[in-house]
Design a protein that fits this description.
heterodimer; A: mainly beta; 7-stranded mixed sheet; 4-stranded antiparallel sheet; about 50% strand; B: 5-stranded antiparallel sheet
Chain lengths: ~120, ~110
């Protein structure tokens, strides 16, 4: 079964702690993306990667970091510098390297709550 | 003003009704996507289109590039169609850059039996 997995589905952390969200895909896609979704707002791009060992900041990268050491994996770290980390985080991938040119496949999401 | 506007924000329908969700955008685009997000949060891509019309089962998506408008239609709606429907566009002219998608806020559809 090809797809994108994110774990865990729910994550709780104390303020001041860094936390890493997992995203794995077995679709052999080049590009991977991290989005953040807040109530009443559209999805916003945090980081994206078009190829292994390369990634670019999206619209709201401050307080986040990523790595892309393997094609299949694109973990997102929410650092203590992120002012409002509580949100729903979605990972996506696409076969093409240009967002929007090819269909994006989304993971099930991770709901992060920081108290 | 948001670059991608969807209407209505919320929509309640009776099973069997014909449903239309609208998306208007203010930028030049090279592609428009319709996505479906179920209550659990997972998102599925429904359509990607740059012109004309596409149909998949009971779903139809149309786009009018001149008017910068797209519609998603659901025929013979069913309670399982209840979800949030999201419109997203890719700006044209981004060339070799990533060309991020711009997302609408979504339309929450509830279909009652």
């Amino acid at each position: 079964d090809g797809g994108i997995t994110q774990s865990p589905k729910y994550l709780f952390r104390k303020e001041g702690q860094n936390v890493t969200l997992s995203c794995e895909q077995n679709l052999n896609h080049d590009a991977m993306y991290w989005y953040r979704q807040d109530p009443g707002q559209g999805l916003r791009l945090i980081y994206y990667s078009q190829i292994v060992n390369d990634f670019q900041k999206g619209d709201i990268a401050e307080g986040y970091s990523v790595s892309r050491e393997k094609k299949e994996s694109f973990p997102l770290t929410v650092t203590s510098a992120q002012k409002n980390p509580t949100a729903f985080y979605l990972c996506a991938s696409s076969i093409g390297r240009l967002a929007g040119v090819s269909e994006q496949y989304f993971g099930p999401g991770t709901r992060l709550t920081v108290t | 003003k948001n670059e991608v506007e969807q209407s209505p924000q919320n929509l309640t329908a009776q099973e069997g009704e014909f449903i239309t969700i609208n998306c208007s955008y203010s930028v030049g685009i090279s592609a428009l996507h319709w996505l479906q997000q179920h209550p659990g949060g997972g998102i599925v891509s429904l359509f990607m289109l740059s012109s004309g019309k596409k149909k998949h089962g009971r779903l139809i998506a149309t786009i009018n590039i001149q008017e910068k408008h797209s519609s998603l239609h659901i025929t013979a709606s069913h309670p399982r169609d209840s979800a949030v429907y999201i419109c997203a566009v890719r700006r044209s002219g981004d060339g070799g850059s990533q060309g991020n998608l711009i997302f609408g806020k979504g339309t929450k559809l509830s279909v009652k039996p």
